[in-house]
Structures are given as structure tokens and as C-alpha cells.
């Protein structure tokens, strides 16, 4: 770092400290270090400091200061993202902008079924608060104890209820964001009809902190559910799971809230990882489906007979091998805990290359059945495992390393080639290399390699227009143009 850079950084640090106070800005390495590595432990960076503003005004002032000093900003919520999007690079010149202090739920309008909250509200907190008003927020995922509303919006997160309610994009009614130059974009008030030009909130959703900092949002809520039926089914194949899904959609279109698939390998990994977990079914099944039906208050009585009828007709048609309906809420939670524990259980086993992919819903089972043996043959000793949101045409397609592989080394040696192989296949099947986890730093080059040239060119133009100096989350999401070595 040159002497003049050091001076600029020093001046920036003094002004940021003055602006945000001791709770709002720190360079203390003990406080900064936990936020320098991503959840999966694949990326570690360096930062000039950690900024934790208390409100939107402070975010705006900080961004103005960063613009003046040319300081890159890496926004961060719960740091539960899967693509290294919230991790700074190794230059040590960036500011991590944590939204975690901005965690107020400002207003719940029970009549309009809307909530306005700050970006740092943790998803589980929002669920709890909505429940106190006999409402619910219809998006959930395994990282709900740490994922924040700002992070969920910025990655357009999905989860296990997309089948019925859509991704985060469908939940956001209004948005507040601070732009690169410090201006505050306020579209918090939801309007059912509004044709005043571009829908800027939709542009910001899924932009992974590269176009603006989300500071608050108005989100839609639904009436609380009166009850649910959670089913665990044993299956012989993923194709059978697809047939079962169609059957469930046919029999319980209004009530079907989630349909997740879990191969036996993942179930066994979770049972090893969680000492108190139990296999819901007695026998062995190659695949499992976790199915949730829900009903509003007043219609709960019809749920159990509906589930029983749906399962017995499925059994008659040879669409499943065995099934059990959770006897109570504790058992229902235990079924879901198995699903939500797949990622940590798998992480405990050893290295894996993870791919969050989608193909058209109708071809997902065929894709997995076609791609798994191909990739295992191409990379001997590996094991392909797919699990997740079959109902959305989205599975997490992981390639587990051979047993003797060393964590870190194996990914370094083989990771790029493996991912390119998977992504090429997905592209051939008209799919997406990022279904719900975003691009981050992990898939930026792959998006550049495989993305539609026109889409990429439009994305770069938008980025240049809104963040001409490239200070917002540099090195993430937006692929470099050919010959551009600066970003
Ligand atoms: C066990 C587990 C299970 C998961 N399951 C799912 C799943 O089923 N579906 C799914 O979609 N995801 C899942 N995730 C991933 C993760 O929870 C989501 O990506 C979530 O949206 C990240 O939220 P976060 O607050 O942790 O964001 P972070 O990880 O902090 O950030 C994610 C990205 O958003 C940007 N960002 C964060 N906050 C802001 C802001 N306020 N303004 C602008 N940019 C911002 C960051 O710079 C980064 O690019 C899972 C994670 C875990 C740990």
C-alpha cells in the first residue's frame, strides 16, 4: 500500500469512526475476524474495518464517505450465504457493512397483512413476531436463525415454500435502499397498481449488494395456518418422486405447501450427525419425500382425511413404497429438522463441491438420473448426491469427494473442473447454474462463461450506471467483460 493510500485510509477511518461512533465502526481484529470467512468456510478475505450503522441515515452518510474516499463496501447480513457474496477480497481495502444492528420490526399492519422492517431482522425473529399477530411470513429455510431480511432480498432467497408462495421476490411489496452515491431510494409504501416506470425494487432484489444497500422492506404476510400435516414418504427413485409430486398437486393443489426430496445418503448423514434424530420409516428406501399440507383455521379438520386419501391412492398407483404422517407437531418438527440438517451434516462428513441448480421442473428427475452416473464416471471415487426442492425444479447437486480426499486440497485441485462439468450439463438441459443461492464470488466466472451475452451486457450497463466506480460489492455477481482486468 502506498504512503498516500495509507493516509487516505487513515482519514477515512477517522471520519467513519466519528460518524458511526464506537458501536458503529471498528478495526478491532477480534470483532472483525468472525465476519471475514463465509458460512461454508471456502473464502476468507481482509477488511479495513467493520461498519455497523444504526439506521438508514447513517448508512447513507457512510456510503457518501466511501464514495469520497473510493472505499469498496461489502454488505453483510447474517453471513449465511452460500456463494461467498458477503466475504471481502484479500486486498484489505474494503469496509464490511453489517446491517445486523438495524433489526427493528417497525410496523405490522394486521389488516393489510404487511410488515415493515429493517434489513437486519433475522428471519426467525420475523416468523415469531408475525405469529404473535396470528400471521405468518411464507418463506423459510435452514439458515433462518441467522439469515436476515436484507440478505434474503439481496439473494432472492428461496427455501422450502417456494412451491406455493414463490421466492423472496414475491414477498417484497416495498423497499428502501441506499444507492452508491448515498441517495436513499424509498419505495416502502406498497401500491397494488403503480406504473411509474421501471420497477426499481425488483431490480435491487437479487442484486447481491452490487447495486445498492437494502435498508428496509415492506413484506407480505399471510393468515397463520390452522394446522399442518407433515408426511415422510419412502420411494424407490427420483422419477417416482416426480410422479408422486404430480399426484399430490392433483389431489391437494390448495393445501400443498412443500415437497422436498432426500436421498438415503443424506438421511444417513443426518442420522449420524444428530444423535437424537430417528429415521421416520422402518425400512430402507433409496429416496424420501418430505411433504407438507397446510390449512387455515376452520379447515383443519379436513386435512388428515385429505392426506390419508392422497397417500392411499398414491400407494394403490405404485407412487410410493411407504409413508407416515407425523402424529403431532413435535414429530412434524423432527421430520423438518432432518431436512434442515442436511447441509451441516454433509459439511461434517468431508469435502464436497456444491451446485445449486435448476432445470425445468418436468425434467429434473431425468436430469439427476442422467447426470449422476456421468459425473461419477468422469471423477472416479466421487459420489453425486441431489436433494432439495424438487417441486421448484431446484436441487442441490453435490459431488462428495473420494474418502481419502483432503479438505481444501481436493477442492483446489478438482473443484473448478467438476463445477464446469456440472454447469455445462445444466446449461445443455436449459437450466440455471444458480437457482436460489446467488452468484457471489463463487460463480461469477461461470456466469461470464455460460451466461447469455445480451443479458450479461445489460447487467454490466446497469452496474456501470448505478455504481460507476464499482464500489458496491466488487468482484461479486457481475462478470467481467472480456479484456476488463480492473473490476
Ligand atoms: C443451513 C442453511 C440452509 C440454507 N438453505 C437455503 C435455502 O433453502 N434456500 C436459499 O435460498 N438459501 C438458503 N441458505 C442460504 C442463505 O441463508 C440465504 O442465501 C440468505 O438469503 C442469506 O442471508 P444473509 O442475511 O445471511 O446474507 P449474507 O450471507 O450476509 O449475504 C448474502 C448476499 O447478500 C448481500 N447482502 C446482505 N445483506 C444485504 C443488504 N442489506 N443490502 C444489500 N446486499 C446485502 C451480501 O453482500 C451477499 O452478497 C441456507 C443457508 C444455510 C446456512
From TrEMBL:
UniProt keywords, alphabetically: FAD, Flavoprotein
Gene3D superfamilies: 3.30.465.10, 3.30.70.2190, 3.30.70.2740, Uridine Diphospho-n-acetylenolpyruvylglucosamine Reductase, domain 2 (3.30.43.10), Vanillyl-alcohol Oxidase, Chain A, domain 4 (1.10.45.10)
GO terms (BP aspect): respiratory electron transport chain
Cofactor(s) needed for function: FAD
Chain ranges of the FAD-binding PCMH-type domain: 43-224
GO molecular function ontology, one term from the record: catalytic activity
PANTHER family listed in its UniProt record: BLL6224 PROTEIN, D-2-HYDROXYGLUTARATE DEHYDROGENASE, MITOCHONDRIAL
Family note: Belongs to the FAD-binding oxidoreductase/transferase type 4 family.
Protein's UniProt name: FAD-binding protein
